[in-house]
DNA sequence: AATTTATGTCAATGAGGCTGACATATCTTC
DNA sequence: GAAGATATGTCAGCCTCATTGACATAAATT
């Protein structure tokens, strides 16, 4: 059941009062996080647009540069997407000469992924404006706050699922 | 240990060294931010899926609840999307009884947006797991760090464009 | 009356996800 | 050595959410 989740009986009264922070809900941080992320990804988006790439390419280039030799399976696990989704993006990056595949030395079924020199340069170029933005956001912050921010971001992640 | 083979004709050299933090680039925070946001939006995503809604509906419901009486133009400005993109999402929310439109009292061309009671409840239900996640990430943090995190997130936003 | 503004809508497009099905090469196991 | 499992690739189709362009309507402004 529950075909219609929303009530449709007559005209529900519109509420005119803003939804404010309560003891349980902190809307302020929720919004801050939304806006911060929106603007954070806008810098690389603008650069990528010129090459006809998108956010998906950025993520792949970033992680392959951070973990050269990672396999396709590793990448799928990190990005939490399907291999079909990855395929198109990865192929474009390989065809454009930013990433190379090398058969695994132990297990030759594996395709180990490495950045090329220009792949490394691209990753750095994309990270640069983001880093400047981060540095600007940290201006005047104490070492304690800087560490606190890292701890906070880290704590926002899902806990490991036992399996 | 992976070994670099010699340069091959026409094939760019794959780089085997990981890209590390430098004085200019802080990859650690870039990644922390990526993972934090990915998991942050996963909670509401799971709830919305049941009603056939998506992230776009979430954003609209959230801001209309925070700013009852905002116009369509206000919403477009906040979300930085086009009115064609907003139209479908907004229509679904109105049809489902989560949001109501009221002609502006001064300017009757305007459509002022208000949440209904169930729209308010939906916004709260979506914010709840996010708030719990934030609270968990703040566990044991000093008041200084909490304020520092807000300052950081706030500093990540684009500065106002002069116009 | 003419123009501008706020909004709505139709049509087409694209990026980036998804599922299902199947192919290939390689490794592991019996 | 045959059979099965694993890592990857690929084809085909579908979905959501964004885009642009063009045009429609109603109301405000000049």
TrEMBL record, chains A, B:
Which UniProt keywords are present, listed alphabetically? DNA-binding, Transcription, Transcription regulation
Q: State the InterPro entries in the record.
A: HTH_MarR-typ, MarR/SlyA-like, Tscrpt_reg_MarR-type_CS, WH-like_DNA-bd_sf, WH_DNA-bd_sf
Q: Which PROSITE patterns match?
A: HTH_MARR_1, HTH_MARR_2, PUA
Top-level taxon = Bacteria
Q: Does the keyword Transcription apply?
A: yes
Where the record annotates domain HTH marR-type, the positions are 26-158
Q: Give the protein name, as stated in the record.
A: MarR family transcriptional regulator
Give the originating organism. Answer: Rhizobium aouanii
């Amino acid at each position: 059941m529950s075909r219609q989740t929303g009530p449709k009986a007559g005209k529900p009264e519109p509420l005119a009062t803003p939804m404010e922070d309560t003891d349980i809900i902190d809307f302020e941080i929720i919004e801050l996080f939304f806006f911060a992320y929106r603007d954070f990804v806008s810098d690389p988006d603008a650069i990528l647009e010129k090459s006809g790439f998108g956010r998906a390419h950025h993520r792949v280039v970033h992680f392959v540069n951070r973990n050269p030799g990672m396999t396709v399976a590793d990448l799928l696990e990190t990005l939490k997407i399907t291999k079909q989704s990855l395929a198109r993006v990865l192929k474009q990056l390989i065809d454009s000469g930013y990433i190379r595949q090398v058969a695994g030395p132990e297990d030759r079924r594996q395709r180990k992924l490495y950045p090329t020199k220009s792949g490394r340069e691209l990753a750095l170029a994309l990270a640069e404006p983001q880093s400047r933005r981060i540095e600007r956001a940290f201006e005047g912050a104490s070492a304690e706050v800087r560490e606190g921010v890292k701890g906070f971001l880290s704590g926002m992640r899902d806990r490991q699922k036992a399996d």
